[in-house]
DNA sequence: AGCCCCGACACGTTAATATG
DNA sequence: CATATTAACGTGTCGGGGCT
């Protein structure tokens, strides 16, 4: 029963952690004087979120404004791991050459691990703190925290606090302590967010197996001597690490990026921070993207037969009409304007005779066209995962060309999927709809493979956000690995 | 050690959607 | 008109990685 009570106690504490709207609102009201741009309470979250990216611009615009947040590194030592119950023993922080450090008289016993590794010992009778056996001056937690805040305040700029693993440790314990000593309001009027350098390194150096501070330090700063688990040293090391030359390239990007992504709305997300994981970068070997389109006698990918293939890369185009093996379905007849006379083996497009080939030859030509680029290829078509890729697969297998084909084609990209992701607000993503929306002036003959291919290419390439498109695009391509799990054809088709 | 968040998988279900 | 796939859920399990 006792334990029960205990548990529920704990959970309420936790809840208070997570939700605790109180300090938040009080913060706004308090958020006095200079920030007149914060209009209403309801807007504040958004404001905050848009607030931070300012950091990014520090690169271009000289940091002239006082409103640009600065990054202050910090580190805490505590009596143990539990962010809810343990007590502080040390705080250190650093911005530029400005350093802050204070020892703190813990309110509870120093845990065994901490005792041995932080070298901090406390004699509660004489209320004296010892570091490596030496008496050091120490303060009561509220005083120490106040000093800390004053240090931060002295910069007269918004502050992003950066520490290693701070989202899950330092920020949380600090929050708890600040709330307990009623200093949260004061604190949050200066600090706009926390940045977790550990997350940063994990994203930035995914190849490293281990991202603890110790490992990073010994890897990147092997010459540096420091006393691990002393807050001052840890802070200094962290700063050197992040600001190291090699990191410099990314420094502007990474720190600010992570700070940006923090979107720290105090204290709502304090416990629960979610930094979107960067998608792992794809291999550098970038295949070319060839757009293509097929026309067929109908919908059934297994039974129906090809009538046309078109493809395009840059300005190199490929097109071939194909004599179908079966009758052309009614819909196709009316919409692709292709008709076939079996007896004379003649294909007509819009009533006019066109040269056509047997499927075998047409497919061979198509494969040869693709091969002519001598580069890995990603074939892109609209809705191709469900249609073009499947019918093509069937046809290529039937004509013993799949081996050849799959030796150069890395995958299929479904541009329909791409646009669905890219323009979720659009109800329809069929080629026709996209074309009339984004290329209203373009004239083309719908359901002619050549035109459809051209239009598709323009659509993809003329969109404004090229980068985003590309990214999305390749991501979609990646999905097609399912077709080639081991670089080899595997039948996800019946 | 104690904790807990996360991402990775592995399922299953459902509704929407484009292709000729 | 056929139809497979996907995204978007929900569920459950498992292991890894960090902090003092």
From TrEMBL:
Q: Which UniProt keywords apply?
A: Exonuclease, Hydrolase, Magnesium, Metal-binding, Nuclease
List, alphabetically, the PANTHER family matched: EXODEOXYRIBONUCLEASE III (PTHR13058:SF22), THREE PRIME REPAIR EXONUCLEASE 1, 2 (PTHR13058)
For activity, the cofactor(s) needed are: Mg(2+)
Sequence segments annotated as region (Disordered) = 1-48
Name its species: Mytilus edulis (Blue mussel)
Q: What InterPro entries does the record point to?
A: Exu_RNase_H-like, Ribonucl_H, RNaseH-like_sf, RNaseH_sf, TREX1/2
- Tell me what this protein is called: Exonuclease domain-containing protein
Record family assignment? Belongs to the exonuclease superfamily. TREX family.
């Amino acid at each position: 029963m006792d334990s029960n009570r205990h548990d529920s106690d704990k959970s309420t504490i936790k809840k208070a952690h997570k939700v605790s709207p109180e300090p938040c609102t009080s913060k706004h009201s308090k958020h006095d004087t200079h920030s007149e741009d914060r209009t209403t309470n309801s807007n504040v979250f958004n404001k905050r979120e848009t607030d931070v990216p300012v950091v990014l611009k520090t690169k271009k615009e000289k940091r002239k404004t006082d409103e640009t947040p600065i990054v202050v590194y910090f580190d805490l030592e505590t009596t143990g791991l539990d962010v809810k119950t343990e007590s502080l023993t040390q705080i250190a922080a650093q911005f530029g050459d400005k350093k802050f450090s204070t020892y703190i008289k813990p309110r509870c016993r120093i845990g065994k691990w901490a005792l041995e590794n932080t070298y901090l010992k406390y004699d509660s009778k004489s209320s004296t703190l010892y570091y490596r056996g030496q008496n050091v001056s120490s303060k009561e937690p509220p005083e120490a925290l106040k000093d800390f805040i004053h240090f931060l305040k002295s910069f007269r700029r918004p502050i992003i606090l950066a520490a290693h693993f701070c989202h899950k440790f330092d920020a949380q314990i600090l929050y708890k302590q600040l709330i307990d000593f009623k200093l949260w309001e004061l604190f949050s009027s200066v600090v706009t967010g926390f940045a977790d350098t550990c997350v940063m390194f994990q994203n930035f150096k995914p190849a490293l197996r281990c991202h603890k501070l110790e490992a990073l330090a010994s890897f990147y700063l092997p010459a540096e001597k420091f006393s691990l688990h002393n807050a001052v040293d840890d802070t200094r090391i962290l700063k050197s690490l992040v600001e190291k030359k090699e990191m410099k390239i990314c420094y502007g990007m990474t720190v600010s990026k992570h700070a940006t992504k923090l979107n720290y709305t105090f204290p709502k997300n304090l416990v629960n921070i979610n930094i979107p994981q960067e998608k792992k970068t794809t291999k550098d070997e970038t295949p070319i993207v060839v757009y293509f389109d097929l026309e067929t006698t109908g919908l059934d990918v297994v039974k129906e037969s090809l009538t046309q293939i078109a493809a395009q890369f840059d300005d190199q185009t490929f097109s071939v009409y194909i004599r179908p093996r079966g009758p052309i379905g009614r819909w196709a007849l009316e919409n692709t304007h292709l008709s076939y006379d079996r007896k004379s083996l003649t294909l007509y497009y819009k009533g006019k005779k066109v040269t056509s080939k047997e499927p075998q030859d047409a497919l061979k030509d198509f494969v040869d066209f693709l091969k002519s680029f001598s580069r890995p290829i990603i074939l892109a078509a609209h809705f191709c995962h469900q249609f073009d890729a499947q019918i093509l697969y069937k046809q290529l297998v039937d004509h013993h060309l799949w081996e050849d084909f799959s030796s150069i084609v890395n995958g299929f990209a479904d541009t329909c999927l791409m646009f669905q992701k890219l323009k979720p607000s659009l109800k329809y993503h069929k080629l026709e709809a996209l074309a009339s929306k984004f290329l209203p002036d373009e004239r083309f003959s719908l359901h002619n493979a050549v035109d459809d291919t051209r239009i598709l290419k323009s659509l993809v390439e003329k969109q404004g956000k090229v980068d985003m498109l590309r990214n999305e695009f390749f991501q979609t391509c990646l999905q097609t690995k399912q077709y080639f799990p081991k670089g080899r054809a595997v039948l996800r088709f019946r």
